């Protein structure tokens, strides 16, 4: 959410050509912010889309460096809003996409603004800030950390004009079911059933409202003083899964939910047949203890604050129940 200070700064932004790669929740929200600010907006995705007077859609494979660079053309900012569909595809799909985005940024002259997450930090020993060391030991966390280091190296070598990453926790808001731990429970909450969650239902957890991600991404992409580092997305006070689901149920007019954690031995067993569930076991540290994001610096320096939790909950309840055919690329 924009503070008065940040709103004033937006008015000073020079209109430019901005290219968003990915049309899932984050990519779509970024495009909306860019349209609001009067920029020329191009959205690149695997399936393309119907262009309007405000946003031009182009079909392109984000893993094809030459095609992505050609579709990007000259640009002031290039946004990485891509996310492989499930964890089992990260190791195969992320490296070529990350390389293609760096190539497109280099050839276009654009700053590369990356939608990041908290995986690179590994198991935290307290609230995570942008300066917390990237110390992940699991494969997904090491992959995300390596992507960021490669981007920084490209900037330091002068290959790209600038790189910047914003880091968010798990999404709330109008997010398709497969991409949110809260929206996938909506049907269960409506019928008054028991909500089974990953990890400890009472461990504190940060939740990030997707429009707040978009506001920060656009802000840092258009402010050269923020480049060359990461920024945390303001995410409000942490809430346990039990607290968050109770708030969602109340907003739906449903009864207070019964919330239970799925035992890790059961998840490991299920993972033998469902690879995605097996991948979740590898990041159990995100759910079996407190997993909290600290964006104090972002608020102090950039004037951005988290959207009130009640508003984020209402958007979550009103959001889409199912993912569109293509949510990431």
Automatic annotation (TrEMBL):
Q: Output the InterPro entries linked to this UniProt entry.
A: Epimerase_deHydtase, NAD(P)-bd_dom_sf
Q: Where is the NAD-dependent epimerase/dehydratase domain?
A: 22-223
Q: Which domain of life does the protein's organism represent? A: Bacteria
Name the chain's protein. Answer: Nucleoside-diphosphate-sugar epimerase
